[in-house]
Design brief:
Layout lengths: L1 E8 L2 H8 L1 H12 L7 E4 L9 E3 L1 H14 L3 E6 L21 E8 L2 E5 L4 H17 L5 E7 L1 H4 L9 H11 L8 E7 L1
Parallel strand pairs: 6-7, 7-8
Antiparallel strand pairs: 1-8, 2-3, 4-5, 5-6
Helix pairs in contact: 1-2
Length: about 190
């Protein structure tokens, strides 16, 4: 797998290179070690891609995860204690789910990394919500988001977003005063 696109959100490229150059080298190493051909194992059942063999996001994620964990990166899970005091008067509260959580894929030295081969809404959520939450909790200072470029996404299930689309969304959205610096990496086979 190769890095085919680089986008700096809120100064993410400078922040990562300045303070996390060793960790960035590890991210690059993990990605370079992924042989994408071996992950083209998912037979499509979709109308538009019937019987086509696609890249398996689960398989790709598993290999990437193994690479990060071997280098000492850790997953971080925080439990969610959902508030109930905001329900309207007279509303009978449902039982709030126990065990709800948010998880950052990988953290090392306060650098958070998310790998997203799913729907476009999750990419925006990772950068504009989850990374801010983990920053506010003191777990990360800066983030890296790894997403497919269009070339890779075309050989995945329908609805998978891609780097080019994500960058457009972020540029149209702009930067908020609560956003942290995030380096967006677009990967290709």
């Amino acid at each position: 797998m190769k890095i085919a696109g680089i986008y700096s959100f809120n100064g993410g490229a400078n922040a990562v290179k300045k303070k996390y150059s060793k960790e960035l080298e590890e991210v690059e190493k993990v990605l370079a070690n992924v042989e994408t051909k071996g992950h083209k194992t998912k037979q499509s059942l979709e109308k538009t891609k019937r019987e086509k063999i696609l890249y398996s996001p689960r398989s790709l994620n598993a290999e990437i995860s193994d690479g990060f964990l071997e280098l000492g990166w850790e997953k971080k899970r925080v439990l969610c204690d959902y508030p109930t005091q905001y329900y309207s008067e007279g509303y009978e509260r449902p039982r709030v789910s126990k065990g709800a959580f948010r998880e950052m894929d990988f953290i090392k030295n306060k650098l958070g990394v998310e790998v997203q081969f799913g729907k476009y809404s999750f990419m925006v959520y990772n950068v504009c919500a989850k990374m801010t939450i983990f920053h506010n909790m003191g777990f990360i200072d800066v983030g890296i988001e790894i997403v497919p470029v269009k070339e890779l996404a075309e050989d995945m299930s329908s609805g998978v977003s891609y780097f080019e689309q994500f960058v457009w969304d972020l540029e149209q959205r702009g930067v908020s005063d609560i956003d942290i610096p995030v380096l967006i990496l677009g990967v290709a086979p």
